[in-house]
Amino acid sequence: MWFRQRHGLQRFLQFPNKRQYHTPKPLLEDLTQRGFIQDVSRRDLLEQAIESRRQTVYVGVDPTARSLHIGHLIPLLCLLHFQLRGHGIVPLIGGATGRVGDPSGRLVERQLAEKEQIEANVVSLTQSIQQFFRNALSYATTRLTLPQDATTAEPRIVSNLEWHESFNLLDFLQQVGVHARVNTMLNRDSVRSRLSSQQGLSFTEFTYQLLQAYDFYHLHKHFGCTIQIGGSDQWGNIVAGLELIGKKDVNNNDLEQNPVNAFGITTPLLTTSTGEKFGKSAGNAVWLDSNLTSVFDFYQYFLKVTDADVPKYLHLFTLMSSEEIAEVLAVHDSAPEKRVAQHRLAAEVTEMVHTKSGVKQATVMTNLLFGSQYKDLKAEEVISAFNEDPRLVKTTIQAILTTPIAKLAAKHGLVGSNSAARNLVASRGLYLNGIAIQDAQRCASEDDLIDSGVLIIRAGKDKMMVLAATE
């Protein structure tokens, strides 16, 4: 294989030639083996429908924040796999349902958000989803030779406020409420768990399942949508939609006897091997928006994945085949300390979300922060990687060459004072381009400049700055 003929981490991380996306596996089987599937409705009929004709699939996103985070990757990548097999996809933002709050998976009632905040989040999320699919489709075309029926156009993103905003209460009760049975609604897991809690369940939350059920019906009727995908806590809401479609379309309560062309899929709640909820880091989401989570920190999140989790994440968050993943893991297992699988995972996911330029930026910063071999770096790449980062300091070439490195470190805030810098030099803790400085009066020379343009000064293990020479 390609990487057995090459040696070293950097060469190993070069991506292979494109492969055919079509595999002997049916799509639902492939998604199951990758770890995307927890529950499906009428699996045999669903698999037959997927393989025999084009389906339209939707996933809902709550506008509780202005950006996607990596917890959204599971359902969105599920949509991407459907799209790459030629199916239609509809990312739906809950511009209306976000005002109500979904009780699913929550022990207490969600605090209702301000209307203006939800509207702003819908606009921002629309852009975030558009950018995700734009970048993900570009990533896919560099990895795969897609089948002719693949749909690579950016999907249309809709908000359910489009149809709920003009839907008055009386009409809703006549068209939706009349088909709902309270005893069935009470048996939903999301409702039962809250009814037994101390806080209970508000009427607003109780009706949420009907709003989402109508979303599925509306998309089924007007968009030809046949499949809804949601997290594992959405199963009750998805079933409510299937029941509403069945009752309104065929006037028959028994879906088994008179099935409709509509199905539900749930994805598992993904946790790490230590039980931590995926998408959270010390209680904070890892955002896909680089203004909220830097490309470097995004890359580092996946680089720090444990050995126990990396096989699962390679299957879920990349388009690598099972065979590729097995070979990467074999190389990884032969030298776990090199974290080959984590480097590949981080590079793949970062390119999918932030493009190749994002990978370049993140790897340059990683090499500078955690590596010691700087001779092959390009000054332009270093400056670009640290653009708008406070650790990048631009100063004149004269100041760099005539001011002792210890004083430069103090002047630009890498250390607290000149005396602290001298103490670091004495303890061999101040480094120039990865080499400890032995003389507090040492100045840099032109030969020290990396690619004639930058110096890397490090204080201890974790603090560093990049000095970029200007005229």
TrEMBL record:
One of its GO terms (molecular function) is tyrosine-tRNA ligase activity. Keywords: Aminoacyl-tRNA synthetase, ATP-binding, Ligase, Nucleotide-binding, Protein biosynthesis, RNA-binding. CDD domains: TyrRS_core. It catalyses: tRNA(Tyr) + L-tyrosine + ATP = L-tyrosyl-tRNA(Tyr) + AMP + diphosphate + H(+). The keyword Protein biosynthesis applies. One of its GO terms (biological process) is tyrosyl-tRNA aminoacylation. PANTHER family: TYROSINE--TRNA LIGASE, MITOCHONDRIAL, TYROSYL-TRNA SYNTHETASE. This is Tyrosine--tRNA ligase. The lineage of its organism: Eukaryota, Fungi, Dikarya, Basidiomycota, Agaricomycotina.
